Amino acid sequence: MSHDHPHHHDHDEDHDHAGSALPEMDLRVRALESLLVEKGYIDPQALDIFVEMYEHKVGPRNGARVVAKAWRDPAFRQWLFDDATAAIASLGFTGRQGEHMVALENTEDVHNMVVCTLCSCYPWSVLGLPPVWYKSAPYRSRAVIDPRGVLKDFGVELPETVDLRVWDSTAEVRYLVVPMRPAGTDDLDEDALAGLVTRDSMIGTGLALAPSQATGASA
Length: 219
What we know:
Blueprint: H1 24-38, H2 44-72, H3 74-82, H4 84-89, E1 101-105, E2 110-115, H5 124-127, H6 132-135, H7 137-145, H8 147-153, E3 163-168, E4 174-178, H9 190-194, H10 199-203
Parallel strand pairs: 1-4, 2-3
């Protein structure tokens, strides 16, 4: 497991797995939300729509554009692996928790997977809001102890010959996995390629989709 940087965390803690007690920060957020709804300052339905859009559409689509460009543009691909922060910023994707990025390349021989073992460090500007499972205690522990088992739970079974590498996100560095480009996509443009890139494939818990599977996959 890679530990290239000290794991300092200066932001919100994670949700535990379903059924566990919520940490104090989550309780405060929920109490504040309830108060704002009660006072009529926010519409809970509108809030749900906003969160859903940011989690599944705005954020992951940014990362999908980065991956698609890397698949088609060799110069950008090299830049991305040399200096992911600058390469991603050149596409206009910057912001909170996306200031210091590292790109990881998945190949036939190497598969990278990202976790945050202490809380929920995650590149919001590229991938949107972190999914609940990413912040859960079971994922954070099992990704380190049994990464192949975790991948199997996500429907990904890799040959034993594949080198599986788990990277620990920190408050200083966050990661973007560039999945392998699916076969039969040589003639696709960046828009079509972006539709093959899922959020999970950019975390490393999934694979990019085949063209026949693309139905708004990056959302």
